[in-house]
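Q: Structure tokens for this one, please.
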Amino acid sequence: MIYATLKTLHVLSIIVWIGGMVFAHFFLRPAVAQFEPAVRLRLMHAVLGRFFQAVLAASLLTLATGVWMLGRVAKQVVQSGGSFEMPLAWTFMAVLGVAMVAIFMHIRFVLYKTLDRAVAASEWVAGGTALAQIRNWVSINLALGVLVLLVTLLR
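A: Here is the predicted structure, written as tokens:
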């Protein structure tokens, strides 16, 4: 029961994270592109601030549940007399998951802070530059997330 609960929390966190990136990148961003820079940047700043709070929780929950599930499986194998060897797909998932969290932390604590300062100072060019950098890193994280899903589901 504990493993099923952990796996459910793990998957739900990933859905929030990847689903939010898809929504922001493919639907929200193109829709607000028609707005003047001051309106667009204020709106994106507000939306991303809320989204990044959710992703911070989701990313940490994803890591915690993943590590906990790995630990439980390893412990069960060892207690039954076996030798635990992590499957290649799990290793791939873990490495890319940690990379995604690191990228998100850069987005949230470096790039979003730059956007925050630019919006507060009404510096729209600097804000546009920060938003473009956020978009680029979100694209990379989205690609990594989809790759992890494909490897996990097609293994």
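A few notes: The chain has a mean pLDDT of 97. Residues 37-79 form the longest helix (43 residues).
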